[in-house]
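Appendix B, example 12.
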Amino acid sequence: MNWTTQAVVVTGATKGIGRAITEVLTSKGARVGAIARSESDLDRLAASPGARGRVEVAVADVGSRDSLHSAIASLAARLGEIDILVNNAGIGLYGPVGELDPGIAEKLMRVNYLGTLYGTQAVLPGMLARRSGHIVNVASIAGRIGAPFEAAYAASKFAVVGLTEALAVEVGHFGIKVSMVNPGPVETGFFDARGHPYERRRPKPVPAAAVADAVIEVVETGRLERSVPRSLGRAVALRHLSPRLFAVGTRVAFRKELRRYHRELGVPTP
């Protein structure tokens, strides 16, 4: 694949996974449109050595349709027609369902799911007209497996998975590819931002660059789905092939968190 001919838009491009995606794209010679909420972060990204001359920036809140559509239109005016969209922007949330703040849960859905939908709708008409393009959604293993205490986050990512699967069938006839990358824990500031650290021994967090490499892989191969690390794909398969066994395994895997929650409620752990 000749990346030097590709115009790629990445949302959430200044930090963590998005920054890693932007860096690997520019290293391959792609022209990148970077979207984020912070203008100062975008300016620093554009001024970084690998990005100079290859990255255009636009400020947007992906949870706002008008804001995101305006940003993508601005980038298309500078980069040309958008060949690839990477819907990466997302936020997390940790806590039991009974204690969730509905307003924060709604924000997760706006950013994680609707932000993906809004971005997709901004580029899709042009892709349909040209009969080409690729949309990559950075979902999550939590969009395949409902993890305890991550219900709101998982629900938003399950929505992204459903959107990806449906859209891939809808537009495949028109030469448009749709893919999703489902990371497990990643070495970024994600867990600090959600207000709860990652406490589990396994799976071990992977570098953000591993997720970026998976994004490159799904674009170059056209495959629908890629888990990061690959071993998480086995958990997804077990979830579908043996739901009861998976449920037992989940309770065992999360016994520490469950016991702590039960103690807080004054209920003996079964």
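The chain has a mean pLDDT of 93. Residues 37 and 59 are 5 Å apart (CA to CA).
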